[in-house]
Amino acid sequence: MAYIISDDCTACGSCLGECPTGAISEGDIYKIDPDTCTDCGACADVCPVQAISPA
Prior knowledge:
By secondary structure, the chain is mainly β. It is built from one helix and four strands, in the order E-E-E-H-E. It has a two-stranded antiparallel ribbon with strand order 1-4. The chain has a two-stranded antiparallel sheet with strand order 2-3.
């Protein structure tokens, strides 16, 4: 099950470098590609506003 990014995302970029598969794409609110996400949780661990959670 992939992680998701909520509307609380501030697009700070903290999660981008943490994703080992490059599943996160930039935008006003970042998005995680569920087909690429391996459910490792590295992105959620570094999100300063806790906008990333398991789907």
